[in-house]
Design a protein that fits this description.
The structure holds two protein chains of two kinds. Chain A is mainly α. Chain A has 16 helices and two strands. The model of chain A has no long low-confidence stretch (mean pLDDT 91). Chain B contains 17 helices and 24 strands. The radius of gyration of chain B is 25 Å and the shape is globular. At the A-B interface, helix 8, helix 11 and helix 12 of A face helix 10, helix 11, strand 20 and helix 13 of B.
Amino acid sequence: MNQLTNYFKNNIRQNGMVLALVFIMVLFQALTGGILFRPMNVNNLVLQNAYVLILATGMLLAILTGNIDLSVGSVVAFVGAISAVMMVDWGVPVWITIIAALLVGVAVGAFHGYFIAYMRIPAFIVTLAGMLIWRGLTMVILKGQTKSPFEKSFQAMAAGYLPGRDLKIGGLNVIALIAGLLISLFFIIMVFRARRNKVKYGFDVIPLWLELGKAALVIIAINLLTFSLAAYNGIPIVLILLIGLIGLYTFITQRTIFGRHVYALGGNEKAAKLSGVKTKRVMFLVYTNMGLLAALAGLVVAGRLNAATPKAGVNFELDAIASCFIGGASASGGIGTVIGAIIGGLVMGVLNNGMSIMGVSVDWQQAIKGLVLLGAVFFDVVAKKKG
Amino acid sequence: MANTILEMRDITKKFAGVPALQDVSFSVQDDEIHAIVGENGAGKSTLMKVLSGVHPHGSFDGKIFVRGEECSFKSIKDSEKLGIVIIHQELALIPYLSIAENIFLGNEKATGGVIDWNRTVNEAGKLLKKVGLDENPNTLIGNIGVGKQQLVEIAKALSKEVRVLILDEPTAALNDEESGNLLNLLEELKVQGITSILISHKLNEIEQVADQITVIRDGRVIENMTREQGDFHEDRIIKSMVGREITDRWPTRTHKIGDEMFKVENWTVHHPLHEHRKVVNNVNFNIRKGEVIGFAGLMGAGRTEIAMSLFGKSYGQKHSGKVFKNGKEIRVDTVNHCIDNGLVYLTEDRKSYGLVLINDIKNNISLANLGKVSRFQVINPNEEVVEAEKYRKKLSVRSTGLEQVVESLSGGNQQKVVLSKWLMSEPDILLLDEPTRGIDVGAKYEIYTIINELAAEGKAVLMISSEMPELLGMCDRIFVVNDGEIAGCLDRGEASQESIMKTIMNHQKKTKSVQRSKG
């Protein structure tokens, strides 16, 4: 029992976030009279929030360094505009456009990163400038107008589904069900591999029943999701992209030297430097990466809208930043996880979606989201003081 | 005899149960310059903080009397009301405000909240004349030198109708001419009826101006000397300051010294902001295998700057000179070069430069050595735990486990974590800057033991310390650093607190005479 309380004490923040998400989901499920978890709506939740979650992943790294990136919304629009011009006006093939768009994102991120890391101009100023620059250039490129439509294959990335939509058993998409089972199996294998390794090194492990209980919860969640999706159109391609990104960035932040250096830089830059961390290079890479992910989000947004518009991505940076803070990241840097940022993003997404279904006006939605952000951070501060 | 303006009686102040001051009593007369001397950490600054209300009434035992009346200061404001003003070592001026604005900061010449700028500038001008500073009151503080800033601080004190002026190491950052001016000013103020309490390491200055000297050692008053008694003599003061029996506070060690392992030649470093100022000047020293050498010197002598600039050029600019390991020249351009060459530096300021306080013990220990527990840039978390745990055990870091956040550790255990980090990189040469600063006696002994073990393993160790007994107890040779230069090297046999102080004083005199002959 002692072990159990210890486990919860050590993971209070993470568990708290998950509980908050579950609470909000249950709340809106009740308030919307069960609409929230209808298969179509679950599908919409994924498609609507994909871009925020992609941005939040990159933003988390920036926030870990103790900074933010205000430019991502404008970069989203800029990349959308460039790809629209390439495909619609010049007739460039889709795959070349995608590669070019991602490279533009990298270049934009590197541009910011250069001034932030090597010229030591505060990130707030550099990315504020970037916000204006890329928004302005978007309007220049699009001449203030909307450009569309795109090819089907380009839209697929944002709004398409895995093939095999007609393979159905009892109205459920077989591919989605199988995917759910495969992911569950993969998860179970990972859990037991990590456990076996720990035992091999002679470390303490949490009791088996607790490990299994945890795994069971995750597996139930995964299969509920895939089951819902199976009852609609199957698995959205963007979900695959998203899960890949979350996995990749969790790995980078938790398991690689680079990731550890990001945390150290945010925790204490001077100490990190005196421990041999190349702080400038780390900072540069974090912002370059942010550019890459902003470009990816830009492609997803353009594909979903099936158009590039000058107003695309307005205020996206604020959603991404809010996701990270709701997810437990610290504004002074060094604290936060990718999973946390994703959960934060989902909290915002469910709030948006749930309130829209209930017919709450956009004005009230904004105010309520603001209160939730403040409340989440307030809870953090109070919990820290008590701890 | 003149009237007693100020008296402190039986002051005892403890920090977390450890006494910093014990039954300190002393009194200051009207119109005198009263010097307080003692080693670093003897309790001088604490005493002055008690006097000025930084440590409020009730946080210490004992009584304070001003003009025979007992006082209980709750804050600096209370002591300032009675005309007691303290000027700290780190000046509290705001660089982007003008001289006049700084002088009247918090005490603005205003009516109904609106500042009268003419009156402000006018009165600031008068005060500047009083302290002999020929500057426009509208000049920004950031544009005048430290010496002049010191005078502005005094002008600020005068604006508060000061009776007792406390100066904590006022001349530490000043050159000789500026110091001279400052001391003259104190004597003038004395004539005008302002008493000064002067804390200083520079005994020659004290000899010059003080009317009375109180010597503090280990939180106790050791001696009171007055000018009339005629026993103001540097040697006499030094003896009183340091005259403590060196007991068995250091673990014994066998000295097995081998060949030269580390050598620094003509190392010169310029100030990070003022590129013409040499902070480290033509420094040469060496460490042999299995040897512990020490850097002694006063605060601001340049010891930290030497060590930190050697470690990946982490301090200063325009570095020149050569660094050798085992006779071969090595590159020290970045921290990683140094770590790869087995040269590491333990900072004197572990909270700012040594630890990521919000991270746990494991991450702090492995931070400089992630390559050792990784393959293709991917960390093996289990290897990491094994390695970190090895050093946590070896140095017996008292903690709940590797996951404990270092912020919550005691100073001594934090220091062990920083040491663990560097030991994990398996260095040959360790530059330890104040390795025992701010940690309790028991933890100190453990750190000493670790240092001895390192030496016994054949490593070369440099120890920088402001506590001379510690250097004398630990080191095979002691290099005396003064003014960014090596003033001398003393062997174990000839080193004593007196001889170290003597070396510093001689070097100060020598540089002074050099400056004179140049000027």
